[in-house]
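Late entry, evening session. Most of the bench is empty. Finally got around to the prediction I had been postponing all week. Sequence below, unchanged from the version circulated by S.P.
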Amino acid sequence: MSSVVAINQRARTAEQKAQRRNAVLEAAETYFLEVGYEAFSMSNLAKNIGIAKGTLYLYFETREEIFLTLYEQSLVRWSDIFIDDLRETMTSQVYARKLLTAAAADGTFLPLLIRLEHLIEHNVALPRLIQSKQVFIARVEKIAKVTASSLELSEAQATEVVKTMGVLLIGATQGDQGPALDEEDLPQEVQDLIASFSSKPLFIKNAVRIIEGIRMETAFSI
């Protein structure tokens, strides 16, 4: 008999509860990718899964706790891909391009990142928030260690680069989360404005400036 517990069956052991929680998360991510942040509801998620809404709250206290967990999973997922793609001694531009490509390829990460501080984190319990911050710290340390080698920076410089890249990702990619206008008949000046705020050139240009600025600050302080 399979050890996997169906999502609509009662979980009795700790292992079965963990399996069911993971199944809820998988269903939640699929649902999130279909409807987005604003339209996501616990009621509809429960219907999609085939369980009572109250059962969801046995595993997650709020919908934002689900989002926080999905954010953590996507952070680890895309950054592992990014780390594996880094090589010793690369230019700031190549580094920035690889980082953006890996982050954007994960459809869950950026939509949750831009809502993390102002929406998601405000509706989770403090112990859960602390746990999430610890996940973030560990991830920054891991990325920074490889970044130091790739960009020939000190560990402190690399840590500053990684933290700043996260802030830049939020600012540069917010415009991409708006309504898709690719097929609309827009005035040329509006098209030019939208293009000027496209995340890729905006992120890469400013990421290079930041990396080189951090590098130069240390050089001038010596």
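Two things to note before I forget:
The chain has two domains: 1-60, 62-221.
Residues 14-39 form the longest helix (26 residues).
Will write this up properly tomorrow.
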